[in-house]
Amino acid sequence: MEKYVIKGGKKLSGEVVISGAKNAVAAILPAAILSDEPCVIENIPNISDVTIILQIMSEMGANVRMLNKTTVEIDPRTLRNIPVPYEKAKLMRASSYFLGTLLGRFHEAHVSMPGGCDLGDRPIDQHLKCFAALGAAYTIDGGMVNLTADRLVGNQIFFDKNSVGATINGIMAAVKADGLTIIENAAKEPHVVDLANFLNSMGADILGAGTDVVKIRGVKYLRGTNYSVIPDQIEAGTFMAVAAATRSDILIKNVIPKHLEPITQKLVKIGVKVEQFDDAVRVIGGDNYVGTTVKTQPHPGFPTDMQPQMAAVLTCAKGASMVTESIFDNRFRYVDELRRMGANISVEGRVAVIEGVDSLKGAPVKATDLRAGAALIVAALGAEGVSEIYDIYHVERGYENMEEKLRLLGADIEKVDEPDPVASEKKARKAI
Ligand code: EPZ
Predict the structure, then answer these.
(1) How far apart are CA 282 and CA 275, in angstroms?
(2) How far apart are CA 406 and CA 15, in angstroms?
(3) Which one is catalytic: 39, 117, 130, 316?
(4) pLDDT tier at 432 (50, 70, 90 boundaries)?
(5) Strand partners for 250
(6) Any alpha helices (H) in 113-260, and if so which ranges?
């Protein structure tokens, strides 16, 4: 079982280059199935979610070829529409995107219910509402979502809930449907825009991505493309939180500053300095931070995927801070782990109240999901003493080479592989 061992309290310095966006590539790779020609996709991060998606596509018969470490060529013409199995689909939420892309291309899809971070209830009712509006019938049988449609016809769809996944799935299902589809109350995240730009570069006709209303006029043919994925604004935000927590001066390169706006504003408000350049931000941590309020919202509000990392910074901000999670039911599972490091946090439903302490102390802690793991890394780097972070597989799902990037900034972090104490005890008992 791998863990990070981090000796905190060190000032960091230097620069870090941000990788391609996990949540953009999680949509763009499956969307390549819609193409009638091979596609080349660049700037893909080397993370386990990407590996799983490419494995699923090649097992379905697509010709998947890594041209270099961050570039993949996908020829979907040989792909067969076989079910996406539970053991793969349960590993990530993005497996739901195979529903939209397979339906869009074959008018049929069979995908196991998606998995992903345990953040509370994560239904797919808005996805199904969208597919049905386009003419698909669905059943859920033995954990498999089955979609079939004689034909897909454009329609007007209003999402009751602002959903990134449902917006992305709706665009993919509609892109080759007959006629015009209008999606209202659409999600506006940068990765929704990136998907639309990718499909439009292949000849799709998508207008309004990034606004509340997305219009998709169905086309018959999608040509190949050579497309580069946007940088990951959540990875960039995480390194901004690292600079704040360690009170360091760090240059974060390969970013789109506009995507970081809500994160920048909150960090500046508590006392962090941020200098913006064309494709980089310089983050200068301060000696004293003041508490603030954070309420997660759909883009362009403060991103829920940065809520745990921001809370980790606020544990050492003077006074009280209040963090409201308005997207997911249960995104405070990391709080217990921060308390083990001396954080003073109380949680009531979707609100966490943080009383700032002078400093956290290193402790053994466990990542409960991807961004919770990121928050523990932020906290451990700023804490006095040594922390051990277990279950780091969560982190490696969404952050490319996290420990190397931190080591290059001067962090004292090591990945250690040690037997799982519970598993080895069971094995020892069996051996007797
Ligand atoms: C995407 O999840 C991201 N995952 C999440 O990132 C991110 O937190 C989330 O969007 C919000 O930005 C990927 O892109 C792979 P939603 P998604 O549909 O699509 C409810 C990370 O850390 N809802 O926008 O699942 C849902 O329960 C991950 O990188 C319905 O009720 O999020 C939630 O409360 C974590 N019915 C809210 O909407 C539906 O049909 C937002 O969910 C769909 C969603």
Answers:
(1) 5
(2) 10
(3) 117
(4) low
(5) 14, 283
(6) 125-133, 164-174, 190-200, 233-245
Question: Which residues, judged by CB distance below 6 Å to any ligand atom, belong to the binding site of ligand 1?
Answer: 22-23, 26, 93-94, 117, 121-127, 161, 163-166, 187, 189, 304-305, 327-328, 370-371, 398
Are the C-beta atoms of residues 95 and 115 closer than 8 Å to each other?
A: yes
Among residues 171, 163, 206, the alpha carbon closest in space to that of 188 is found at 163
Report how far apart, in Å, the C-alpha atoms of 132 and of each of 153, 157, 203, 309 are.
10, 10, 25, 38
Q: Which residue has the tokens 């995104």?
A: 331
* pLDDT tens digits, one per residue of 320-355: 999 999 999 999 999 999 999 999 999 999 999 999
Q: Best substitution site from 117, 118, 164, 396 to test ligand 1's pocket, by max atoms within 8 Å of Cβ?
A: 164
Active site (annotated) includes residue 130: no
Give the confidence band of 421 by pLDDT, cuts at 50, 70, 90: low
| Other beta carbons less than 10 A from residue 48's beta carbon | 15
Closest CA to 69 of 51, 44, 48: 44
